[in-house]
Amino acid sequence: METAKRHMHLNLFLMNTGHHEASWRHPDTSPRRITELDYYCEIGRIAERGKLDSLFLADTYVLPVTVRHKVLHGLEPFTLLAAIAAVTSRIGLIGTASTTYNDPFHIARKFASLDHISGGRTGWNIVTTASESAAYNFGDRALPDHAQRYRRADEFVEVVKALWDSWEDGALVADKDSGVYADMDKIHPLAHKGAFFSVQGPLNVPRAPQGQPVLVQAGSSEDGKSFAAKVAEAVFTAQNDYRSGQAFYRDMKDRANRCGRSPDELRVLPGLYTVVGDTEAEAKELERELGELTVPAFGLQRLSTLFKVDLTGYPLDAPVPLELLPKADEINGNRGRYELIENMARREKLTIGQLIKRTAGSRGHAAAVGTPAQIADEMERWFKGEAADGFNLMPSHMPGGLADFVDKVIPELQNRGLFRSEYEGYTLRDHYGLPRPAGRGREGVRL
Amino acid sequence: MSAGGADRKLILTAALDGPDYARCVRQAQIAEQAGFHAVVAPESSDFRLGGNGEPEAALEPFSLLAALSAGTASIGLIAEVHAAYNEPYHIARKLGALDYMSRGRAGCHIAPGPAAAAGNFGRTGEGGPGPRLLEAEAAATEFAEALRLLWDSWEDDALVYDKRAGVQMDEGKVREIDYAGRYYAVKGPLNIARPPQGQPPVLFAVTGARGRSAAAKEADAAVAPLLSTAEAALMRADMRARMVRNGRRAEDLRLLAELCPVVAETNEEARELEHRLRQAFGAASERLIFAGTAAAVADRIEAWFRQEAIDGFHIAPLPRPDLLPAFAAKVVPELRRRGLFRAGGETSTLRSGLGLARPNNVFATLKRRGGSD
């Protein structure tokens, strides 16, 4: 699909009422709609109007302690994406699933099913679960340590890919005349026995339209980056400024190269928090309005959870107590994000209140608050300066913030020749310009 | 609606089958247009060959039903779940999501899961699904119990979304359940609020005595492979007794017989088809087949239903794709003419369609009684 003109890739990072933590309090949002299918139909329509590459859903297996003041994640990703698949026709559907609290057979089966239902539009955001309390929802075991989780993830992903390939293309014949339903010579067991899993196979779903759904990775710790360099076709990341975006981009492409892959097989897509206004003042005013709606108690709780230090008694105008924070390698949860926000506080000598406001919308991701032209400028700079192959869009509030982006920023990007005006293909692989993986035959699925 | 009485109406559910999404959509539409109460998406946890030597591929039930929730308006959407290979937390969330998106049409059919699938779920150095398989009915009972508690971890009015005060939920109405059973442990609370139905209905398949015991404890509806009205009467009497022993009201369980309806233009043609099907099924899997003209099939259904042992029928996956459309087009209108089946087009929750009350939240009830929570 790669043509002479390189286009950026744009996903909608879909989060309930929007990415600003106080978006649910804004008069333009309706938090009760986040469990209604109509809400997602509307969002899907707007996103397809903007010719976006995909919708992406994050996920967590716990009720966050911060729930009192912030809207729930909403609906479980597989279920929601399958419903959205039924009401959309082109947009990609990326769901998050953890390798720590699932079985490879289930995950292979779910994504293959979703790929069939959606006509080849799915991607799997592979996470290893950062929340220690998630363990207690799955049988009272402690969260395995960071390195162990990634070793398990390595094997998990290899097994899932082999299961996807356990039916060759064309194994499902369904020839009514000859009465042959499946060609058994093209369906292969895995008989896998590894350090973490034993999986007999084959899968009970025919090979997916995309061959393999697109593999996405979103952790930016050291373990996460080497994992992504090996297996991911797209990397979602939080980079809060252009320079660190460039450094991350170069690092990931180099790592992919060292793994014997073409840098082009890996799309680097940082998150971009957006607030769109017809004038700069209007955008800033909306951001200020949202800032006014943040609940300090929620911010303190959020930082306490991230830093593993109880900040709930601290005054907002006190400096972030850097001396009390643990070292990054003591963090077993979301280590990449910890480092990012700790660095931000250190570098800019922020007070607790300032850090809360700085991260209330973007949560450490890059932010673009301004006119359509200003936002497009920033995106163009990242894209042309090799800091990004595209972005995970994080509208401040939904669905209004998305509609503003689609109707105002997208045309600006299209006019500059940076983004597609029409979909050129049907599958997520088509949108991302990624090749469809070939099958590998009987011996190939034996790991 | 109650189990007895003059307004008693037949319950009908039908299985979806196969890996072809478009075909499943057609099946669901046929069932919905005919006024069926629900479609059931069968689960598969392993690759296996069917009676005809062909692979029994199937789409994953929750993805399938969620997609169907967008294209249907009134039919119930029941996902089969293999308890041995799943975790209650994942399943409770998916059912919650499906229940919200379908406006109260979700349900689940909890089956133990086939032992043969264990080879797909081996975890090196961990116990694996062993005990959950060896004591399958007890595990399935726990699974259902854990689901109900997870749904109840949020009281119905816990979400307040008070924009002015910045308070999303009333923390006093959301709690950890600390469920620690023999086969499953889950702390909770769930990360989605209590579903529209409170608790989506739970179905069990009942075969042996242990299956009956499990259903009597946890099931809202039971699907049974029954071969005669005499067997059905015994089953109902036994289930009544078991439910009462468990402190439940006997009328709080819907009993459905598994049925393969074979409708043809003439009785001879239908019997010929029945004969061929029985040969294909094999002697080992005897099943209930009503074969004949639409009127003859309706007669058999009426006779079973009037006996009042069962509340309706579940149409399991059928060996020929034309059998369900024929049943929907010919038998259902006949049942309706006889006043045995609902008019169709009713929009209600699955639970109320089955004539079941919306359950109280167990924690809220305890709190009202002044008990500790």
TrEMBL record, chain A:
A family per Pfam: Bac_luciferase
Domain Luciferase-like: residue ranges: 26-382
Keywords of the record: Flavoprotein, FMN, Monooxygenase, Oxidoreductase
Residues reported to bind FMN: D59, T96, H146, Y150, S220, S221
InterPro entries named among the record's database cross-references: Diverse_substr_monoxygenases, Luciferase-like_dom, Luciferase-like_sf, NTA_MOA
Coiled coil (residue ranges): none
GO molecular function: monooxygenase activity; oxidoreductase activity, acting on paired donors, with incorporation or reduction of molecular oxygen
Database matches in CDD domains: Nitrilotriacetate_monoxgenase
Superkingdom in the source lineage: Bacteria
NCBIfam families per UniProt: FMN_nitrolo
Membership in a protein family: Belongs to the NtaA/SnaA/DszA monooxygenase family.
The protein's name: LLM class flavin-dependent oxidoreductase
Organism of origin: Paenibacillus arenilitoris
Lineage: Bacteria, Bacillati, Bacillota, Bacilli, Bacillales
Automatic annotation (TrEMBL), chain B:
Annotated signal sequence range: none
Residue ranges occupied by any Luciferase-like domain in the UniProt entry: 19-293
Identification of the protein by name: LLM class flavin-dependent oxidoreductase
Membrane-traversing stretches: none
Oxidoreductase in keyword set: yes
Keywords: Flavoprotein, FMN, Monooxygenase, Oxidoreductase
Pfam families: Bac_luciferase
Assigned protein family: Belongs to the NtaA/SnaA/DszA monooxygenase family.
Molecular function as annotated in GO: monooxygenase activity; oxidoreductase activity, acting on paired donors, with incorporation or reduction of molecular oxygen
SUPFAM superfamilies, per database record: Bacterial luciferase-like (SSF51679)
